[in-house]
Amino acid sequence: MGKFSRLGNDLYNGRRSINFVGRAWLWYAISGLIVVLAVLGLYFKGLNMGIEFVGGAEYKVTNVPAQGMEQSSVDDLRSAVAGTGIAAAEQPVVNTSGKDGILVQVKPVSTEESARIGDVIRQVTGVNDQDLSPTEIGPSWGKEIAKRSAIGLVVFLVLVVLFIWAYFRQWKMSVAAIVALAHDLVITIGVYALSGFEVTPATVTGLLTILGFSLYDTVVVFDKVRENTKGLRERRTTYAAQANLAVNQTLVRSVNTSIVALIPVGAILYVGAVQLGSGALKDLALALFVGMAAGAYSSIFIATPLLVQLKSTENEVKLAEKREKARNRAIDPYASVPAFTEDMPVTSAPGGVPSELDEDDEDGPVSQAPAVRRPPEAAGRGRVAPPARGPVGPSGAAGRQQPTRQARSKRGKK
Question: Are residues 27 and 101 in the same domain?
Fold first, then answer.
């Protein structure tokens, strides 16, 4: 944990940095692949809707002996009903009701199939015909739940947009947050389709809950982005760099929060799916577990990089990018700039080579002409010295008289 704490401190202070914003298209590709798999699962497998949404049959068993109310007996009853070979009873919902009651729910069945299921229930529980009362459940209640859930979802999204716009004063943050929420919902629903878990009212409750968790994580990151990006001109930095720093600064907090939240939810999912077999506990836990994990991912890898791309069209952000490029422009390593010293001789030749004196001047040396400054070499062109063709040998021009530099007073005289 000490190394993890030091890593978090280095990420917060900027000594270390993970390039989340610069690799935005990599994260988009990963999310796109997951979303495509989720959509394909919805298209080919579809959702396994519970009897609350499609209707079905419910068997209420009363006066069950004490040993029949134990968890092992309930599991045996569930296995027996699922083993009848009836397609509608492959995933029965079996729960205890009161001190001596059990409720068994299956999807719509025919009269003959209902009679077979009733016989199995009486055989396993050992009750009489008077203690078993089958009833039909219509899908109207489930449709009403679905309708109200859709209305609640729309109202929630509208309030999210208004809240983020009012708090941050930036509609682009609202767009990025909504995209992250849609990303989390699609992935969670796709996992339900691929896993074959039943969609119950508890599932709807879990979906609405993860929206709040995902939004909370995103708002925390956006608040740090707003704090870091104030006064880009004075800070001599760019929007993308400060947004990436904000993600790094909140990374440890996001990871710790997600782990702390996922551990108990994962325990509930294990108990509901493995030990209890089915029920509202399992449906709620799966939605929470997948949604929380997707929400932590989207707030870091989706929302902030998308926000940076949306902000990249603003004039202030563009000017900050141009200033950063100008500061980071490469300097020509071969450019020669002589250093000035007080005892540097006055010269008319570049490179500090003194000129000859005027011998015809009886009063002494003539005043030197001002130094001719060489034009600076263009920086950033990447000039490279050519490689040597071979060893240096004697030249045929070695014996010739070489030109010499003369003073200005002697130039042009013969």
Answer: no
pLDDT of residue 361: 47
State pTM to two decimals. 0.65
Range of the domain at 122: 56-137
Identify whether the C-beta of residue 38 lies closer than 8 Å to the C-beta of residue 193: yes
Q: Is residue 346 part of a domain?
A: no
Give domain status of residue 288, yes or no. yes
Of 39, 46, 44, 52, the residue nearest 204 (C-alpha): 52
Residue 183 near residue 191 (C-beta atoms within 8 A): no
Query: Which residue in this structure is represented by tokens 């929380």?
Result: 292
Percent with pLDDT over 90 in the chain = 4
The total domain count for the chain is 2
64 three-class SS:
coil
Instruction: For residue range 68-105, list pLDDT tens digits in order.
Output: 777 777 778 888 888 888 877 777 877 777 777 888 88
Q: Which two tokens stand for residue 411?
A: 């130039």
Are 186 and 105 found together in one domain?
A: no
Which residues are paired to 106 by β-bridges?
Answer: 57
122, 202: one domain: no
